[in-house]
Design a protein that fits this description.
It is a single chain. The longest helix has 14 residues. 31% of the residues are buried. α7 packs across α10. The protein has 10 helices and 7 strands. It starts with 10 loop residues before the first strand and ends with a helix. A 5-stranded mixed β-sheet has the order 4-3-7-5-6, with helices on both faces. Strands 1-2 form a two-stranded antiparallel ribbon. The chain has 2 domains: 80 residues, DNA polymerase, domain 1 (Orthogonal Bundle); 102 residues, Beta-grasp domain (Ubiquitin-like (UB roll), Roll), CATH 3.10.20.30. The chain binds FE2/S2 (inorganic) cluster (2 copies).
Length: 238
């Protein structure tokens, strides 16, 4: 069996001015990793600046990926013929999108993320247990990881990208921002999709009713109190 201990990166350490610094051995620069400059290392990242970049795909996902991708999203796939594949047309965020050579076993979640680049919809458990993948199908919330894409021809599918945009947020998105209804942001698009659908559902008016109706959306960061506050505010205004 190969001994991987020899291939571990070797770090040289030094203690200067009471601080520990680590540096790669010369041969380990083969990866062309640029060392951080002192300015970069001092860059101040906060949770908000992070969410406004990478994490914002969940909260404020844009529509550009779909616009760029439609109608034939993967030219290579169009040339690949598989006897078991199917061609389907879906209606997503108000636009018709044709998908060629789709594996009929592809879930709606994987199709949105991997064929349409609509990555605002998140994959958490992939087993229908966390709600991160929540989208709307004909106005009702659905766990897209539990649904095959081929089942949805003719349906009206809405993802977080179709709910609101930076500069034109849905009131629920604005309320999540106002009430800090997220920490890492990974569950947030699913939370918002559920919360928006909930506005049309016959549930009671109490916070306990909101918690019960949102029980299918798990937040590992435990931002539940602020999520309920955001939903409560929008329901009150509606
Ligand atoms: S990813 Fe679909 S419910 Fe968790
Ligand atoms: S904000 Fe991190 S999982 Fe909900």
């Amino acid at each position: 069996m190969a001994d991987h201990r020899d291939s571990r990166p070797e770090l040289e350490s030094s203690h200067e001015n009471g601080s520990l610094s680590l540096s790669l051995a010369p041969e380990q620069h083969a990866l062309d990793l640029e060392p951080l400059t002192s300015d970069q290392s001092r860059t101040h990242f906060t949770r908000r600046t992070f969410l406004s970049g990478i994490g914002a795909t969940g909260l404020l996902a844009g529509t550009a990926p779909l616009a760029a991708a439609a109608p034939v999203l993967d030219p290579a796939a169009a040339e690949t013929t598989d006897a078991n594949s199917v061609n389907i047309t879906l209606r997503i965020n108000g636009r018709e999108v044709t998908l060629r050579n789709l594996d009929p076993r592809a879930t709606l979640l994987d199709t949105l993320r991997e064929r349409l680049d609509l990555t605002g919809t998140k994959k958490g458990c992939d087993h229908g247990q966390c709600g991160a993948c929540t989208v709307h199908v004909n106005g009702r919330r659905v766990n897209s990881c539990l649904s095959f894409a081929v089942m949805h021809e003719g349906d009206e599918i809405t993802t977080i990208e179709g709910v609101g945009q930076p500069g034109k947020l849905h009131p629920m998105q604005a309320a999540f921002v106002q009430h800090d209804g997220y920490q890492c942001g990974y569950c947030t698009s699913g939370q918002i999709m559920s919360a928006v659908a909930l506005l049309q559902e016959p549930i009671g008016s109490s916070d306990e009713d909101i918690r019960s109706a949102m029980a299918g959306n798990i937040c590992r960061c435990g931002a539940y109190t602020n999520i309920v506050a955001a939903v409560r505010q929008v329901r009150t205004q509606a």
